[in-house]
Amino acid sequence: MVWTPQQTGAFLDFVAENRLYAMWHLIAFRGLRRGEACGQPWSETNLDTHSLTVSSQLVQDGWEVEASDPKTDSGSRVVALDDDTVDVLKRHRERQDKAREEWGTAWFETGHVFTQEDGSWLHPGKVTDLFERLVAASGLPPIRLHDLRHGAATLMLAADIDIKIVSDTLGHSDTRITRDIYQSVLPHVGKSAAEATAKLVPLQRKAEAEKAARKAAKKEKARKAAAKEADAGKGGKPKKDKAKAQAKTTKKATRRKPKK
């Protein structure tokens, strides 16, 4: 299942004060995998150029966690960041800097964007558990954390982003993978593309038909205005209003009681 844009927005509003809000935001909009988000280093996150480079991930081996290369060769990629996501990450970095000062020498300097309270590695399994608890508390339909990544792809496709760019952003090795996974969204994208293409070609007959329709509407408006003006000129008020006034006068005369 994939949330609608409204449901995604509702979830992000609900977790706005959560310590890992920036992670949920990043996955929801840029589609990072869980392990990629957990292992993303600040050294590969360039907020000045609005981009981050996915070059590593944290994976589970049993319950142990270890650093690893991305899932596939195509998993190593540069992901563009929008202005809002950059602002979210900047605020997250400020909070992390403050936490580093508060922890002092007890702070674990991993260099990761997302960490535990003391700076140590996040455990991917615990991140999933936390996400599921937050979803349950929000009252939204339950989804997996990986479905939040699917939602990012759906949003991009619904926004008519070229499928090659979507595929590269997600780290798919081939656009066919993207097509197979998100084929339910592609008909909408195809229709939007068809409409956009059609608008590029000016058709004379269509333009003439639209011009004739506007002319007819203008003529009808002028006719109604003239008719209204003619009625007003005959009796100072339109006939309908005059008839109402006469009926009102007759009614008052009927109800008037004779003097004693």
Describe the structure.
- The strands form two sheets. A three-stranded antiparallel beta sheet has the order 1-2-5.
- The chain has one domain: Orthogonal Bundle (hpI Integrase, Chain A), CATH 1.10.443.10.
- The chain is elongated, with a radius of gyration of 32 Å.
- The longest helix is centred in the last third of the chain and has 32 residues.
- It starts with a helix and ends in a 5-residue tail after the last helix.
- It is mainly alpha-helical and 260 residues long.
- It has eleven helices and five strands.
Walk me through the topology:
Elements: H1 5-14, H2 21-30, H3 34-39, E1 45-46, E2 51-54, E3 57-61, E4 64-68, E5 77-80, H4 83-103, H5 124-138, H6 145-158, H7 163-170, H8 175-181, H9 186-199, H10 204-235, H11 239-255
Antiparallel strand pairs: 1-2, 2-5, 3-4
Keywords:
single chain, 260 residues, mainly alpha, hpI Integrase, Chain A, three-stranded antiparallel β-sheet, two-stranded antiparallel ribbon, 11 helices, 5 strands
CATH level 1 class label: Mainly Alpha
Percentage beta strand: 5-15%
CA radius of gyration: 32 Å
Q: State mean pLDDT (0 to 100 scale).
A: 84
Task: Describe the structure concisely.
This protein is mainly alpha-helical.
